[in-house]
Recover the amino acids of this structure.
């Protein structure tokens, strides 16, 4: 995280908590007390922060209107970047699901907690594939003929982490420079890496 990000993070902390000490700010943003002090001085010089001395030991900080504007601009940039990422992830997942569908699968099982589950579900709907989400790999007989997509947060990564019925040749085929769709599973992490993320 660069200095500008730290400055904005400190501004946001002061804006949301209002009565906050330098030591608390340093702890929350993960910086030394000296560096936090330097950033607070810089924010004051830029007019993003106002300082009022309460007594000899206590100083009160307040975010100025310019500071509030800086926070809003950062939030807008973050939102734009997030929306772009969602669109890019969706395209990568759609590409894989198109291949999955062309191979005759009609059901996709997302295994593990995923920050992208809503995108995978949306893409399945768009490709007319049924979708289910499992915290852990279920009994293979429950969803025979399904394509398994292991989440980006799946515990473990690689052959040892795979359920026994997916280990062996399927694993080797899936990791020979592809996203794994030759087999009946893929790692969401591989899908995104193959798409350049």
């Amino acid at each position: 995280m660069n200095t500008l990000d730290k400055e904005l993070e400190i501004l946001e902390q002061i804006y949301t908590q209002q009565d906050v000490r330098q030591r608390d700010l340093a702890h929350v943003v993960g910086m030394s007390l000296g560096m936090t002090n330097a950033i607070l001085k810089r924010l004051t010089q830029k007019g993003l922060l106002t300082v009022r001395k309460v007594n000899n030991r206590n100083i009160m900080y307040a975010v100025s209107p310019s500071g509030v504007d800086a926070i809003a601009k950062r939030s807008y940039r973050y939102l734009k970047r997030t929306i772009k990422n969602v669109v890019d992830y969706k395209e990568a997942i759609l590409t894989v699901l198109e291949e999955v569908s062309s191979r005759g699968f009609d059901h996709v099982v997302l295994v593990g907690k995923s920050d992208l589950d809503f995108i995978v579900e949306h893409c399945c709907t768009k490709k007319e594939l049924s979708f289910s989400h499992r915290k852990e790999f279920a009994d293979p007989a429950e969803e025979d003929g399904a394509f398994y997509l292991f989440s980006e947060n799946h515990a473990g990564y690689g052959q040892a982490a795979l359920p026994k019925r997916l280990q062996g040749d399927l694993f080797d085929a899936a990791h020979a420079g592809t996203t794994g769709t030759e087999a009946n599973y893929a790692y969401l992490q591989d899908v995104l890496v193959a798409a350049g993320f």
